[in-house]
Each structure stands twice: as C-alpha cells, then as structure tokens.
Design a protein that fits this description.
The chain is α+β, with helices and mostly antiparallel strands. It is built from 7 helices and 21 strands. Helices cover about 20% and strands about 30% of the residues.
C-alpha cells in the first residue's frame, strides 16, 4: 500500500496540477492483478461552488491519469455543504467523466475544512478486470473470479409516512437495483445509511430508531452471507454498516455486494470484544436494535479486506468520555484497533488473519461540532500518520457522541494459521508497501 505525495508537475489535462487537496490524500493498493486507487479530497482553493468543484474534479481526473495502471472510476461519494449545489455538481461531474460515470452518491455533510464540497473516489484496473454498468445506480467489477457490485444514490422518497416508510422504500429500491445486476440483497456485505435529522423525534420514535425498525423488518427472512459465509461464522450474520446524520432533505443509501464461486472467498463478521454486538442492544437504545456487524472481513485467497462499520466511543453499550473530543476519538480508534486485530480474528475462529492500524487504507471521520475538528484531526493523524482521511460535519446517532469513524483495512491471510508479518507482506505475489 502506498500513500503517494502530491504531484507538482504540469498535468496532461492542461492545468498545473498542484493537487492541493487539503489534509486529505490518496492511496494505491495492488491485490493480485487488481489495482485499487482511493482518493479523499477537498478543493485547495475557495470561491464560488463552481470554481471549487471544477478545480477539485480536474485534479482528481489528473491523479487518475497519472497512475501506471489504466483505471476506471467505479464509485464516488460527494459531500456537499449545501444541498442546492447538487445539480451544478452533477453538471461538473458529467463534463469531466462523460459517459464513464462512477456510481455517485450525494450526501449533505459539510467538509470540516470549510470547502464547499469533498469527494471520496475509488477506481480500479488491471489485467482481466471488467467493469459493467447497469444504469446510474449499479455497477459491477469482476476480477479473478470475484465480482463486486456497487449500488448508490438511493433515496429521495416523497411519501408522508415518516422515516420508517422512507427507509423501507429505500431498502426496497436498493434491492431492485441490485437485481438489475443479478444480485440478491443477501449478498450485501456493507451498507451506508444517511439519515436526515437523525436524532429528531420523541424517545422511541427518533428517525434513527425508525430506520432501525424498517431495517429489522426488511432484513427479516434474508440470510446474509449464505453463499460465502466462513465455517467459523454464526448462522445469522448482518452486513457492516454506517448509520449517520445528513443535513439533506431525505434519507440516502448505498451498499456493496459480493459474488464469487471461488472456494477461497468467504465472509467473517467481526464483533469487538469490549462492545456488545449492536444487534443485541437493549430497547433503551432503540426499540428495534441496529442490525449490523461491527466489521465484515472478506477473505479473498491470500488477503483480507476488512470493512469497518461506523465506530464510536462506546464500551459495552455505554458512551465513554462524554464531552471530551480527544478521548472519544482515541477510544474510537482503540475500538477499531481491537476489532481488526489478529487476536480478534483468532477469537472469531480465523487464525492467520488480522490487521493493525497501519493496514488501514482510508478513514472517513464524522465530527459533530466544527469546533472539535482540529483536535479530532490531530488525534487521527497521530494514531494513523499519512493515512488518507476526510473529515465531515455530521450528527451522530446518540446525542452524547461527538465523533464516528469508519475505515477499510487490507491485510494478508495465512491459511496455515501463522501470524502474518507486520510489513512488506507479499499479497498474491505483489509487494504491499507502507
């Protein structure tokens, strides 16, 4: 895994590419024949929305063009300061990408840096990698017998029956979109659920709690991971997930699904040893508990992708360090560290797998209060120096939580059960650099 430094040479797109993407960075990872590229950034200039958007997407496009492997942009999250800017942003994206549009989800979560927008973009490429689009909301990537299906931009329900109806409609819409790619909802491994006014409403019927009720009803009867579940995994499992606030006018969703016939591709849901599983929460937190795993580990031959759910400063079921952004951020990162550790994989029946914080490829950090941004960022950069991250203002599902963090980690898997080396691992014959 590499975290390249910004390029400051004249760009092939005709602009001088300073790549001033604020504190954010990009990462390049080679897993077998598949090259993965992730960039998280905000524009390095201020001014009108149009000016910032055009500068940001020009630089992102330039970064893509400079990679040694030809890459196809597959998925993109666009974080907006103002919902009214979405239409103009779509125009800029269309002008830059043309018909080769990634599956794009717009979320109203202002970047903490003060920019008008921020972006998280993933692109893939390599020998034998194929990309197929099934409309604006679904795209499939296939490589070495593994098919990843990306679904996004789901939402905009216009009904009047509240967060329950809006959530139920959105889950059904995701299911229909996945079906266009020949995928069932039982193959979903990760969801992102953006809830406007997430904590509004009386106790017992807050919008987040109503989303949990709709999710519980929708998931009933779905046997997640039935095709790919690890032998050590429990019978009933749930996807990894993030449920977070947005300042938009409606609930927005996206998801990631997996399809493969390879016997060495399988799923292992992970729980944190110092936290109660979210799906076992008592009714005092939500009448219907949140149905998600703390992380979903996807074993693919000799390496593991660990998709870490939205994580906060919670031990057992209790919020820790109320009012202290530094300690909450540290506790959140400690929770992630324990979750992905080799000891936790072994505890879940998969010795030979596991990761450290140095294996994390990117962070998405949701900060409740703007005034906490600098302290939160300082902690993240101290614990994970150089790791690409984007910081967004968003409400968290509990009133006393100040920060929530999600992550993706890539690490080797030794099927013999021996503990992997700390760095310089060979993954499918490719050297993973740090």
């Amino acid at each position: 895994m590499t975290f390249p430094t910004p390029c400051r040479h004249p760009a092939p797109c005709g602009i001088r590419c300073e790549l001033n993407l604020g504190p954010e960075r990009h990462a390049v990872l080679e897993l077998g024949s598949l090259a993965q590229f992730a960039v998280l950034g905000v524009p390095g200039i201020r001014g009108s929305f149009r000016l910032q958007a055009e500068e940001l997407f020009a630089q992102l496009f330039c970064l893509l063009s400079r990679q040694t492997t030809a890459l196809t942009a597959t998925t993109m999250m666009v974080f907006l300061r103002h919902e009214a800017d979405e239409a103009e942003c779509r125009e800029v994206i269309r002008a830059r990408f043309g018909e080769a549009l990634p599956v794009t989800t717009f979320v109203v979560q202002p970047p903490c840096s003060g920019a008008a927008l921020g972006v998280e973009l993933w692109a893939l490429g390599g020998p034998g990698v194929t990309v197929k689009r099934f409309g604006a909301h679904v795209l499939a990537v296939e490589s070495e017998g593994i098919r990843w299906i990306h679904c996004g931009g789901i939402g905009g329900y216009g009904g009047t029956d509240g967060a329950y109806g809006e959530s139920a409609f959105s889950f059904q819409e995701m299911q229909q979109q996945l079906a266009r790619a020949g995928i069932g909802f039982d193959q979903v491994v990760r969801t992102w659920l953006y809830v406007n006014q997430i904590t509004s409403g009386e106790d017992g019927c807050q919008r987040y709690q109503e989303l949990n009720r709709a999710r519980t009803d929708f998931y009933r009867g779905i046997h997640f991971g039935a095709k790919h579940r690890a032998e050590a995994a429990p019978t009933d499992i749930y996807p990894a997930s993030t449920g977070i606030g947005t300042r938009g006018s409606h609930i927005t969703m996206s998801c990631l699904a997996l399809d493969s016939r390879r016997p060495d591709v399988f799923l292992l849901p992970l729980e944190n040893p110092q936290q109660m599983a979210a799906y076992n929460y008592q009714a005092q937190y939500s009448p219907q508990s949140p149905k998600f795993s703390r992380a979903m580990a996807v074993v693919q031959g000799h390496f593991v992708s660990t998709l870490v759910s939205g994580t906060a400063s919670i031990v057992n079921t209790q919020t820790c360090h109320v009012g202290d952004i530094v300690r909450q951020t540290e506790q959140t990162l400690e929770n992630i560290e324990r979750l992905i550790a080799p000891e936790n994989f072994a505890r879940h029946g998969l010795p030979g797998a596991g990761a450290t914080l140095q294996d994390i490829a990117k962070l998405r950090v949701y900060v409740k209060h703007q005034e906490d941004y600098e302290q939160c960022r300082e902690v993240c950069e101290r614990w994970l120096p150089g790791v690409p991250a984007i910081y967004l203002r968003a409400d968290v599902c509990r009133s006393d939580l100040l920060v929530e963090i999600e992550a993706v980690a890539f690490s080797p898997f030794n099927a013999s059960g021996a503990t992997p080396k700390a760095d310089g691992q060979a993954i499918n014959g490719k050297e993973q650099k740090r």
